[in-house]
Amino acid sequence: MWYNIDILKFALNVLPPVLRRNVLFALMKVLLVPLIELQTAFMQYVRQCKQNVRVNGQVIYIEKAIRDYFLLDNDDVYITELDVSKKLVYFRNSVPYVYISNDINNPTYIYNTTYNAQLRFIVNIPDYLSDRIEEVRSIVEYNKPAGRQYIINVYER
Prior knowledge:
This protein is α+β, with helices and mostly antiparallel strands. The chain has helices at 7-14, 22-56, 59-70, 113-118, 133-143; strands spanning 78-81, 89-91, 98-100, 108-109, 119-126, 149-155. The strands form two sheets. It has a three-stranded mixed beta sheet. A three-stranded antiparallel beta sheet has the order 2-3-4, with no helix packed on it. A hairpin with a 7-residue loop joins β3 (98-100) and β4. α1 packs antiparallel against α2 and α3 packs antiparallel against α5 (133-143). The longest helix has 35 residues, at 22-56. The protein is rod-shaped and about 75 Å long. The two termini are 48 Å apart. Mean pLDDT is 76; it is low at 111-118.
């Protein structure tokens, strides 16, 4: 990637040829040690994030993580894809913005219009977990692929 550079080599190449002496090279190495350690820690973090997304970013694993956390044996927690085939009506003057689908009794509220285009999946949880929705949100945030958006939908059992 573009951010994986050799900082020491870059700093020594940027140094003007007149100032390239062994003493100044040694001083540059000493001064760049904290920056090199910071970049090494950042690269380890990037590798860990890529591994987390690759290993447990699937829908099945997110469901399993929520079930394991709350010790559920049944299929009460499930994930569905966002249905974009519904016809939606948009009212600009209402706050928050309201998108009304075919079911007039159950409108969906979306606060940001750009957020709507990025949604990819819906996490459906039963109503007895509605008081622990922040814990569900933290599990999904940890296990979802980077850049994917979601909605937590509470349904009645």
